[in-house]
């Protein structure tokens, strides 16, 4: 009888713990955050095991940024550039990392694509493998901050192998603006070819 009573007590405590995990915080956000994977169409962009790592969230590749715990607000207003890791990087080579928003000002009307959020060249393969890429920053990291009521935006990370002895730089015209950047022309100008790896996440304005 004592054994049965102990088992029932343990089950009751376990049930209470599960319910507590599901109840919301005082601000209405649930204790548990659920990470939703991208649709099959957007998922196709992710290839090559490129990792984009933000605080608390971990690798956000091929996911929606969840609303819970103010993550959308924090990624837009608080966190600095993510760690980028590429386990397949060749230690003897250098790479170019591009972060763009193809949905500026909205996915339905992307007249300012590609909005350049980050551009780093001369990244050593050994650093990429370790998840601590340095390199030469051509465009400082700009946090993803979609305009209100513009829906979800894709934030894409493309990693290119940098041709040996190729000095990659932005033109004076490109330096004047982040928006409406001709990424394809840039890639063609420096013979970067196709990305060796790419990934993306989706988020929208935290107040929507």
TrEMBL record:
Keyword Signal included in the entry's annotation: yes
InterPro entries: PEBP (IPR008914), PEBP-like_sf (IPR036610), PEBP_euk (IPR035810), Phosphatidylethanolamine-bd_CS (IPR001858)
Keyword RNA-binding tagged: no
Keyword terms: Signal
Gene3D superfamilies per record: PEBP-like
Signal peptide: 1-20
Family: Belongs to the phosphatidylethanolamine-binding protein family.
Protein name listed in UniProt: Phosphatidylethanolamine-binding protein 4 isoform X1
Species of provenance: Apteryx mantelli
Gene giving rise to this polypeptide: PEBP4
């Amino acid at each position: 009888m004592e054994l049965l009573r102990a088992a029932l007590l343990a089950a009751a405590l376990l049930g209470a713990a599960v319910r507590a995990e599901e109840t919301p915080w005082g601000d209405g956000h649930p204790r548990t955050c659920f990470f939703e994977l991208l649709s099959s169409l957007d998922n196709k962009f992710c290839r090559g095991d490129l990792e984009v790592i933000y605080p608390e969230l971990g690798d956000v590749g091929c996911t929606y940024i969840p609303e819970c715990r103010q993550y959308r607000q924090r990624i837009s207003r608080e966190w600095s550039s993510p760690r980028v890791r590429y386990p397949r990087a060749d230690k003897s080579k250098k790479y170019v990392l591009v972060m763009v928003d193809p949905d500026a000002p909205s996915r339905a009307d992307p007249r300012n694509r590609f909005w350049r959020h980050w551009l780093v060249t001369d990244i050593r393969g050994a650093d990429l493998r370790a998840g601590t890429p340095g390199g030469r920053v051509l465009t400082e990291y700009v946090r993803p901050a979609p305009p209100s009521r513009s829906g979800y935006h894709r934030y894409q990370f493309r990693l290119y192998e940098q041709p040996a002895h190729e000095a990659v730089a932005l033109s004076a015209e490109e330096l004047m603006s982040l928006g409406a950047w001709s990424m394809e022309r840039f890639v063609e100008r420096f013979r970067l070819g196709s990305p060796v790896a790419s990934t993306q996440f989706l988020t929208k304005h935290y107040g929507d």
